[in-house]
Amino acid sequence: MATGRAYWKGYPKLSLVTCSVALYPASSQADKTHSTGSTARLATACVSRWWTRETGRVVDKEQKGRGYEVSKGKYVEIGPEELDAVEVESTHTIDIDVFVPEEEIDKRYYERPYYIVPDAKSEEAFAVIRDAMKDKGCVALARIVFANREHIMAIEPWGKGLLGTTLRYDYEGRDERDVFKGIPSPRVPKEMVQLASHILNKKAGHFDPAKFKDEYELALRKLVKRKAAGKTIERTEPAEDRSNVIDLMAALQQSLGRGKDRAQPRSKARKQGARHKAG
Question: How does pLDDT run across 252-272, given as a tens digit for each residue?
């Protein structure tokens, strides 16, 4: 069984079949290097405080509240007891609404993953639901409530357990046409596309997250150690901008390790041959 503290506990419902499960975060930021506010001279942690924009006075803890913007610069304050009036039907259940093919879920909607495990008394019912989903090759779309919000969750078999990934709502997505409308549509020579395809084939592989290193995190850890040891930190010069490709065909050929003489464009080679014959 899973160790550590569960993030949420409840019951997935598939018609009349239900079981007791717990959610555990499938990702963590704990190993990243974090900074905190500190005084410049003493390097000790600081406590954040609130000030009002109008008077600049410090706001006491008991005077703090939560405001929601209803129009530009206009807010309405709503207290915790009033937020309880926002009733959400399900609070301790995972209500499965529909099963869909995994490939139908737009990748832009995926948000945060969680592992779902059963308790000791629900292992059989849990296995029935998990294995039925494996047989059908489908993903469950369900509603779940935590952190005072209702979320849509995509649930799929994952090893001996299930993986539940919260999804963004439709209103949170942005239409790519609003962003891509300024991209031109140049006519690309077929030979360039073929050369680029060869480069892709040379670099073909398989996804292995262990091969990707967080270079910034590693450099930050070294910098912190150097600073703690009393060493001087000097800013390095930014890398040269190499994005301005003048000869795209030459760049593609060099990427494949070809020389210009060995990989001339066919049209250019034909023209040179025609000139030779004419001479």
Answer: 788 887 654 444 444 444 444
